[in-house]
Design brief:
This protein is an alpha/beta fold. It is 22% helix and 37% strand. The chain has a 7-stranded antiparallel β-sheet. Bound molecules: flavin-adenine dinucleotide (FAD) and FE2/S2 (inorganic) cluster (FES).
């Protein structure tokens, strides 16, 4: 667990919140922004940080990248709305990275990465990191409507890098109202392909219902799944018990849990 100002060596180790300036802010959609901090972090895709606004609250966010530290924030309540008011140069306190991320795959796997809502956040970094290991990657992004889809253009820009390394990245989108991509849920799009044996591994992050449905499909068709589960987190380090999920402490054992074949 180490955090350092970006570019400085060696990295220091921090278990306490440490302030870093916001370097850049990108608006992703009407309620989601990506924050790039002037910091780097010793971390792997799927791990999360705790972001603290002093005298207000502290909340967990998946890492979109570790160098520089990058998080995607959808405004759903008081903390995330306050984060959205930040400007470049303001300071955000960070501790972590915490938890278990996605486990590196064996070579030449055919994988599906599935993201629901802001669940796409850790998958872009995963797609970049795992490119040398994957024979083929299908990225399936699901949302309620077209205006909720996130990071589709970032995945599209990865396609040429996959092609150069002799593999393929396919991007598929689904919306529940049919305003973009296929109408329905990500699982509607995936079931036939899982049944046909097109994938060796599914990695997913998103709402619990989506993850539970993928877990069922994985066990039905014998495909292993690495699923990143969300829970209410307070300490982030296994002390308070608020993130317990089916007998496991998600901040330590997860958030990515592995199932199946
Ligand atoms: C490991 C992990 C990674 C996360 N990564 C991201 C991320 O990359 N981007 C992002 O925008 N958010 C992420 N979240 C969720 C984020 O922490 C919450 O959205 C945030 O805490 C909301 O705080 P708030 O005060 O704005 O809203 P609150 O008032 O706390 O919550 C608003 C609504 O969201 C629900 N909610 C809040 N937190 C959770 C939760 N953990 N699980 C289920 N429902 C919840 C509440 O029930 C409420 O309905 C992640 C959570 C976890 C545990
Ligand atoms: S958040 Fe406290 S035990 Fe996981």
């Amino acid at each position: 667990m180490s955090v350092s100002p970006s570019g400085s060596l060696p990295t220091a180790t921090f278990n306490l919140p440490t302030p870093f300036p916001v370097r850049a802010i990108e608006t992703d959609n009407y309620r989601t922004k990506t924050f790039v901090l002037d910091a780097s972090l010793d971390a792997a895709p799927g791990q999360f940080i705790m972001a603290w606004l002093p005298r207000f609250d502290e909340k967990p966010f998946s890492l979109v990248n570790a160098d520089p530290v990058t998080i995607m924030v959808t405004a759903v309540g008081p903390f995330t709305r306050l984060l959205h008011e930040m400007k470049p140069g303001d300071r955000l306190w960070v501790r972590g990275a915490y938890g278990n991320g996605f486990r590196p795959p064996r070579p030449r796997l055919r994988a599906a990465f599935v993201g629901g809502g802001y669940g796409v956040a850790p998958l872009l970094w995963l797609a970049r990191s795992w490119r040398p290991h994957l024979a083929a990657l299908s990225v399936v992004i699901g949302a309620g409507a077209a205006r909720d889809l996130l990071y589709a253009e970032h995945f599209l820009s990865l396609q040429q890098h996959y092609a150069k390394s002799g593999s393929a990245l396919q991007l598929l989108t689904t919306t529940e109202d049919g305003s973009a991509g296929a109408q329905g849920r990500v699982t509607d799009l995936l079931e036939d392909r899982l049944a046909a044996g097109e994938f060796d591994l599914v990695c997913a992050c998103g709402p619990d219902g989506m993850l539970a449905a993928l877990e069922q499909l994985g066990s039905r068709y014998g495909v292993s799944c690495q699923l990143s589960w969300e829970a209410y987190m307070r300490c982030g380090i296994g002390i308070c018990g608020s993130c317990e999920h089916e007998g496991r402490v998600l901040c330590l054992d997860g958030p990515v849990l592995q199932n199946g074949a």
